[in-house]
Sequence to fold (498 residues):
Amino acid sequence: MGWLDQLAEHVEDLRRAGRLQQNGRSAQALPILDSVLAASTDPTTRAYALIQRFGALINLGRAAELAAAMAAASEAVREVPDPYLRGQMHAFAALGAHLQSNLDRGVTHLVQASRALAAVPEHDEETAWGWHDLAMAYSYLGFHGQALTAIEQAREVGASAGLAPEVFAAPGIRLRNAVSLDHQGDTDGCLRVLRDIDAELSRYLATDQLRPGSRAVYGYALARRAALGEPTEESAATWLTGGGDSVRTRDLQHLGAVCLTIAAGKPERALTMLEAVPVSAEVLGAPEPARLRSICHASAGDHAAAHAADRYAFRLAAQRIDRLRDGYLDGVAARLDAQETQRDPHRYGDETLTDPLTGLPNRRQLEHYVDALLARGERAAVGVCDIVGFTTVNMRHGRHCGDLVLQRIAGVLARVMRRGDFVARFAGDEFVLVLPGAGPHHAAEVSRRISAAADAENWQILVPGTPIGLAAGWSEVGANGRGLSAALAAAAASRKPT
Fold:
């Protein structure tokens, strides 16, 4: 029995929508999914439909609608603890992050999708497609080796469900690998991969297993070879027709026509075509148009312009590598922050007193800490710190990104505290700082350190287009008999941007 068979309602409608999406017809699948959502009350059915709707919007390139669609899918998945749904949602979320040029968030979703799909107990058709979509996400974000591993997993799971391995050919993975090699200067390696893709096309034609959505990919592989001066047996123009309504298909068809114009000895016309129709940087990578310009200039005999275009393509390719390195460093920093918050049991307490999202003490532990401090007759500065722009993050980027911002801010606060200071997540985006024995001067210095550390974070990568800041206010406990509640109220009333 397949995963869809367990649903209480609308199973055939959802299967039909799924087949349309697999064949590159997301525009036709979308109204079916909307009608299911309008009629269904079953939580699992709704979660599946919301996830598939999210995927359809990604395929159609409707970027403005992605944040709301992801938030709805994420909320539905939280109510239905199913590993397949969680894995499929995160695979689509990684693709959505790629469309929004958010590599850091995309990598987080890749890891979560892989872990969730690996936890699915049954090998069925839906899980196989989940691995397929994860492979696509890996590929689009530039992780070509992981993409090939995931597509092999899709074939293995699909075989258990009776699906032919040709169904998961996924030529787009190797096409993106091929052009990536070319962007980095390895044109010979690019041609080797393109030849393999074209040889695969001949095999699949013999078995009649070609998916319609793959037509443009095979067509572009043929056209790209022709642009690099290699003749092909199949007609690229034939394969560049049809193939569905996705943004990927549209852009491949246009860039394929540019390649064929180069191959026909009309480089000036090809340059005009490149300039006339912008293409998404997410389909074959931002360097691809620049690399095609270089080929155009070289074909026209303008080798200086060809060299300049090649250098630009290489620089764009290197920027992605730099961003991956930055993400790696951020990941190490996050782990160190988490270790720091857990290192001192007297400072951070046990799990029942700890906020599970940030690893910081929670409100209950804060109250215990301040009660003990006051019982010893001590005084302390108390700060209330909240995130400026947090509501916008949740609305524009979804709650998952909001959680990432909270974790990053928790790390910032833990790093800047003095040994013996106390920081807790109080509620929502509100954090409380307790500085034993500190007065106004020390509190102002801590505010400056917090501000500098928060400003140094690369929020543009995590939540692009959404500025993040902190606002803090300070008061005291133990002064004139003031308790925690009164101190928090006074601190909150005095909050201002740090």
Observations:
- Strands lie at 380-388, 422-427, 430-436, 469-477, 496-497.
- The longest helix spans residues 303-343.
- The radius of gyration is 27 Å.
- DSSP finds 24 helices and five strands in the chain.
